[in-house]
Amino acid sequence: MKKYTNVFVLLMVVISTGLLLSFATVQDKKDGGPWNVPEKYKTMQNAHNGDEGLVKIGKMHYIKHCKSCHGGDGLGDGPKAASMKTKMNSFKSAEFQSQKDGVIYYQSFIGRDEMPNFESKIPDDEDRWAVVNYLRTLK
């Protein structure tokens, strides 16, 4: 009987430690600093705004290139997000959605820090705007 008690205690310690570490990991992530978006992008207009056909293409690119970090619903909870040092904010947040399209374009394709540059992976400008349009649907 004592053998089973020791196993049970050990199991509870392992589970408790795992839960505490998973909680600590989330809190240890730092907030990203402010984006230094060039004026060119702040005033950039989305010529494809409202193009419903492009939203489907944008979703396809999002699934291929963004979902692993940003998650299926854009909450910043993709499988790779746990290994990042910087906390990812939700695309559903009012703060994100209030940004101009050109700013989102810059953030999505130029990147910074742990966010890679995607200009060569999505070279077509229309496809890039398709991703921006898809991100707008994640409200």
Automatic annotation (TrEMBL):
Q: Which residues form a coiled coil?
A: none
Q: What is the lineage of its organism?
A: Bacteria, Pseudomonadati, Bacteroidota, Bacteroidia, Marinilabiliales
Q: SUPFAM superfamilies per the record?
A: Cytochrome c
Alphabetic keyword roster = Heme, Iron, Metal-binding
Q: Which InterPro entries does the entry link to?
A: Cyt_c-like_dom, Cyt_c-like_dom_sf
Q: What Pfam families does its record include?
A: Cytochrom_C
Provide the protein name: Cytochrome c
GO MF entries:
electron transfer activity; heme binding; metal ion binding
Record domain Cytochrome c: where: 53-139
Q: Which Gene3D superfamilies match?
A: Cytochrome c-like domain (1.10.760.10)
